[in-house]
Amino acid sequence: MSTTMIGMGMVLAQSAGAAKKSRRPQAMPPAAVHKECTNFFAVHGISTPSPLFDELSDTYYFAKNRAGQFVWGNRLLQEKHALAKVEDIIGKCDHDFFRHDIADRIRADDLAVMETGVPVKNKLEVINGGNGALTWLFTTKAPIRDRGGEIVGVEGFSRDAQRSQDIIAPFHEFKSAVEYLQEHLMDNVSIDHLARMSCMSLSTFERKFKQHFSLTPKQYILHMKVHEACRLLPGAHSIARVALETGFGGQSYFTKQFRSVVGITPKQYQLSLAGARP
Questions:
Q1: How far, in Å, CA of 191 to CA of 239, rounded?
Q2: CA-to-CA distance for 156 and 53, rounded, in angstroms?
Q3: CATH, residue 38
Q4: What's 95's DSSP letter?
Q5: Are 56 and 153 contained in the same domain?
Q6: Which terminus of the chain, N or C, has less C-beta within 10 A?
Q7: Structure confidence at residue 49 (pLDDT)
């Protein structure tokens, strides 16, 4: 299947699994290339990317030098290219993973970013994985500058639209319940009522809710109320009034619950904000 332009900056392409890979000759032996790329950040006096990038579950992070060789990639990128470990991507280029015409197009985008210094934001790319499945990527790229401000590479994110949808999908079944809570936060909301709204039994609702939000429904409601209290407290003259407006009732109970979430009392919270103001 040949490369097809389908408008709006979209590219329909095949991955290395669907066509023979093309590798460009490198001036240095692979071991020397790997070593140079491994030392990229230290040589240019800039920080290595955060290890938090390895925790991204729907976004590929990459960094390349001016020659187009990878100097960093996150764990998801490693998995995408079926590499044994993250470090295996260091020193490789897009021609090691994609057909040459597709890799050439990626390289052209990288060069444009490095030559102009202008980032590319949310460019849509569509890649055929060779099994009929399309991967929709929203790619953002920006230049990497050394400590002197000179552009020495390019880095960016490619967000996998399907992976993003898969992550969000489990929360859709709680959409009605969460929206109801936001509208009736000051009321005495029944968890059983929220379960019925979500077409679940009470036990199933509580189990799934905690699985997705890492909080029980009651804890979630408490956090929402405390969040609203934090919004009201800075301009409030009466903590008791805030307790009533956020559905806690008495000030003593409000103080106890607020401290359980925030770690300090409402009064201490007010004072901390006052002390932070110029």
A1: 27
A2: 11
A3: 3.30.450.20
A4: G
A5: yes
A6: C
A7: 93
pTM for the model: 0.57
For residue 275, being part of any structural domain is answered with no
CA end-to-end distance (rounded Å), the chain = 63
Residues 153 and 186 in one domain: no
Tokens matching residue 262? 């925030």
Structure-block tokens of residue 80: 């995408």
88-118 pLDDT, tens digit per residue, is: 999 999 999 887 767 888 899 999 999 999 9
Domain assignment of residue 277, yes or no: no
Cβ burial of 254 (10 Å; 0-12, 13-18, 19+) is buried
Distance CA 260, CA 59 (A): 35
CA distances from 201 to 192, 205, 220, 263, 269 (A): 8, 6, 18, 34, 39
Q: Which domain holds residue 29?
A: 4-166
Compute the CA torsion angle 30, 36, 41, 43 (nearest 10 deg): 180
